[in-house]
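User: Here's a chain of 449 residues. Predict its fold as tokens.
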Amino acid sequence: MVEVMPRATKAFVEDPNANYPEFNAVGGDWAQIAKEAEELGEERIVVNLGPVHPATHGVLRLQVELDGETIEEIRVATGFLHTGIEKNMEYRTWTQGVAFCTRMDYLAPIFQEVAYCLAVEKLLGITEQIPERASAIRVLLMELTRISSHIVAIGSGGNELGATTMMTLAFRLREDILRILEDITGLRMNHEFIRPGGVLEDIPADGIEYIKDKLPNIRNTISEMQDLTMANPIFKIRHVDVAVSPLSSMMALSMTGPSVRAAGVPWDLRKTQPYCGYEKYEFDVPVADKADAYNRVLIRFEECYQSLRIIYQVLDQLEKTAGEPVMVADKKIAWPAQLSISTDGQGQSLGHVQEIMTESMESLIHHFKLVTEGFRVPPGQVFQLIEHPKGVMGVHLVSDGGTRPYRAHFRDPGFNNLQSLSVMAEGAMLADTIVALAMIDPVMGGVDR
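Assistant: Prediction complete.
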């Protein structure tokens, strides 16, 4: 059911108890409601979209004030998916915090893990001690996830306009990437693989060959989706000069990511403030000349190709560093688990279990204390930034010297980017609102946290 009400009049604002007309639209009685509104002289109505999935990105509510089919005002209401992740992290060890933050943006979980662990490492003062191979694995996982996030954004946006083929192609590509992530981390989503000090485990022995076998299919699907959209006249009608946002307004609203680069600003933290060794890799920052829906799609496609460039360079790096450690040398911080893949799935290696259970009481005590109690982090606070697929992600951590965060707060790019929806949609047609929202690409798990 769509709830419809006329704009509040001056009399109603002054007297909330005054009677005012209210209409409920059920089924096909819209014509009758329109007739009654016309008789009352009410031309503007407010339509509630949600709280449902108006653009398949999560539970979101849009309050849209309409004059006919034209949007006069739009308000974004968030908070329907609030999980209390940030507060819960205050009651878990620094390592256990990874299991919480990975579940925020569930389409790009690796990025929250990396941002959080980089912040913890900065608090510990061990940033320079992170093994080169661990940083390379982090970059590999992030760039694979960046492709998946961008393509799902494009595919879901197409699906919302009736192009179901775009969604099926997007999920075909995502499936290839999820298989790679599962091969490396043991999980398809919410991996909990990045840990303070490095990564949980090295890539499998045949991991590089497996990835190289999948990459051509991934590239072909990206190209196929691009061929179906960028020159398609229907797609261009729905996206060119639609949801335009001036650069000045994006800067005022702290908007980041593909939208800013579509406006011509090559702002990418991988270039301007490198982390995880991004300065070692050759790649370009795609830009366009106008921040409309069409160029936002174009930028995402181009960034997928740049991610593929980085991935091939990382694979070469991993071949050169085979056998090197993937966790910091300090045993007071390094996660003690040593995982292995066997016929019964992923679990502790038998050699590690044998050592801590039968050979070394000290190893058993250390393992028990580090897993249950965690390590202590010196008092202080840090702010860490990374380039998330949706824009700039920030992590603010505060330590009181204990084994748990005193405060953890995330700057999710989707939350800031959503503030621009009114700039993009007001004055445009109602049908263009879904296009604007899809190209912002918010994921409500990250927005609400």
